[in-house]
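Re: Re: token formats

Sure, here are both.
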Amino acid sequence: MIDPFDGGAIRKLWATDLAAFRDHLLRLDSSTRRNRFGMAAGDEFVARYAETGFTLDTVIHGAFVDGRLVGVGELRRIAGDRGAAEAAFSVEPAHQGRGFGSRLMEAVILTARNRGIRRLFMNCLASNSQMQRLARRHGAELEFESGDVVGLVLPEDPSPVTWLREAVGDASGWTTAVMELQRRSVIGGWFGRA
């Protein structure tokens, strides 16, 4: 879904975005990584995690600024329960507080809704007040469980309008991704010449 705001855009990530996804996660500082993964996460763990991002039953949306991925919202189905999924978010510190988290949350909820997800869970550390505020703004009920907070959003049923919104966003997002890939190829080819 393309949504220009504050110099950025939101769209789904494709397999061609794997390196950008990995690099985004690796750029997170230790505090942001801890908030994202619920624990300290080293570079090797983060790189392995990124490799699984496009192989699992996952849809990932990205926030881009000037062609660089600076935030992601992930929707992962919960194994054994087709009606439940987990959402996870990360935004690089320099881009926090600019609305990216909220836009990513909206995209994830729309995707969940269109896939018949009835329960969308968000787990975060009790100290992660930013995530808790984001979850509350989008209607999540929060429960505190032994140092963690579990948020639950109950997406509405899909409708022709929500399917159309996602389809139009996908078409725009795919076009943007292809144009960005071509731009990188031209620049790489141009500067890579001897």
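Second one below.
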Amino acid sequence: MPLTAEPDNPDAAISPLPAADRAKSLQQAIADAKPTHFVPLPDGIRQFPVARVPADLPVYRFDNGRLIAELHAHVHNTGEDIDTLRQTAESARTQSLLHRLLMIHATDARGPILPELRRIRQQTEPLLVTAAGVVVNGNRRLAAMRSLLAEDAQQFDCYATIDVAVLPDDCTAADIDFIEAALQMVPETKLGYGWVNRRLKLRRQIDTLKLPRDWVLAAYQIEDPAQLKRELGELALAERFLQERLKQPGQFAAIADAEALFIALHAQLQKLAEPLRAVWESVGFAMILARAELGKVVAGNYPFEPAEPRHLPSLALRRFARDKLHVAGEDMAEDATALADNMLDDLRSFFDGCGPKDTDVLHDLIDVMNTIREEQREAEKPTVMLQRVRRARAQMDRLTPERLTQEQRSVLRSEVAAIQAQAAYLLGEAPEHRFEQRKTTMVKAVSGYLRRWRETAGKS
């Protein structure tokens, strides 16, 4: 696979060897090699032989979990078909495309493999390839080593030949997917797939490859089966946003920074029934679209935070329609059990039309929600007071008379008397005594302070 640097292109042009030639060369290279490289498989850890081969022998794997989103964006931009591209995976054109995409990841600041290989000038871990030379693990490293070799063949001649661990020819596609997923779960040495790529890979394994869910859970070290359903739901939500709101299906790069928002939005939408869910999905999409303008206020509000109070989703929409959109009618009454379906449809259409600059509308909705939350806090104050009374009584239960000083007993006597008077007022048993009790308590407190001050002054 000759590798040359093009003058007008910083990437390398690739000409792959035929699959039969690669397989033959690999078999010859491992003929006398002992199995020394450990690899995780569904049935446990196994060892495979390592051989040294020319850097132009392996080919990049098309179904690399790290590149799924980028390949979707490529076919969207070019009008190509992903399946057609997959069928030509080992062609010079497609391999060169994969190389360009891998080089973006090779220079990623979160796992900058290219600068590291440039610095150490040494391969520290063998690549893992199939019997036909398709790279299962190490695509990014291979791209970096090839680029350095193309940049300066003399300075980086250490990468002219590379170490590869070779899988047996009976290794299935499912085995390869398992290996890739298991190896990429090592966070201290691997650059993660990214949140979209991970979910696209999961969906392909479940829907396309029809792999058993237990197998997928083991490969990705997912302990809770519900997590798998959540991640696929988050992906579907993100795809609806790209399709319906951005009108750019497959352009996952546009939401690379919005993982937390889609995860939070999906979690809250699952608690709602249709058609209320559809409206809040539209609201959430509008806020994500305007996230740059709204800033931190997005993540701190519903529908990215739990509803507080619980009736906020329906009440906030009702208030917004009545107070901000000036919608009148019986459905706008505060005591209505639910908004009419036609009103929810209208609200969804309204928020569907919100663009990234329509922040005033979203701020209005946020203000409505803040007002509802403040009203709820005011309404809950008696409950909070009673909880504090219970906690105070529980603390008193742990005290004994001998632990109190004479001064503490005096304070306790005054406070208990004040609480008794306030309780009588709240219970309607002595309403006329509330002000007098406050006044009496204040007088006692001031008198006590003056008495202690005079005693101190007299001693001096």
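Residues 3-190 form one domain. The chain has three domains: 3-190, 276-379, 382-459.
- S.
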